[in-house]
Amino acid sequence: MKEKITIQEKQILVSVISSILILGFYSLYVYQKYIAGNPEILNDFKFWGRSFLFLIPVSIVVQIIIHIIFAIINKIITNEDFPSITDERDKLIELKAIRISHWIFISGFVLSMGSLTLNMQPYVMFITLIFSGFIAAIVSEIVKIYYYRKGI
Amino acid sequence: MNNRIKELRARYNLTQEDLAKKVNVRRETIVFLEKNKYNPSLKLAYDISKVFEAKIEDVFLFDE
Fold first, then answer.
1. What pLDDT shows up at residue A2?
2. Which residue of B has its CA nearest to A5?
């Protein structure tokens, strides 16, 4: 019998989709506004610093807004409430997901340092860092879905 | 590790939701315990055994 998707799994899917959309739109915005007309800016450290610092709060705020909207729509459609407690299984799944995402990010960090060692342009390092952070976040969510479905 | 949670729950006339509330976990955790797809912490095993007024080893069956 096909198992019903739980509210945690829905929440995780919303996180994955919103992470992809946020980074996609943000990259497009930064590209059109700054990079398209001035490609030299890619090697400007200040530009990367500002881009990182702006992406983090924007990402958090947009994620919160998307989750609130999702909670309202989900409540209207299914009348389901979000679980009021986080139990030991949730915490264990969270820890396993964090461990995997940590290793992915560390691998990306090593790769980004490798790009500097190989005399690549500094923007390669920054893009590798952003990309590894993004992949780590997505894989962490997918790992959670896997453990919620299959068990630990 | 196997367990007798489903059997004992039926004996005590408890739903998965009732048992989950008594031991402060989510219903899905009880579902996965009953399917032997989750090994509980010692604290949760103790709490569940207490609900059924049994010893841990009478509820959770360890394979030698």
1. 59
2. B28
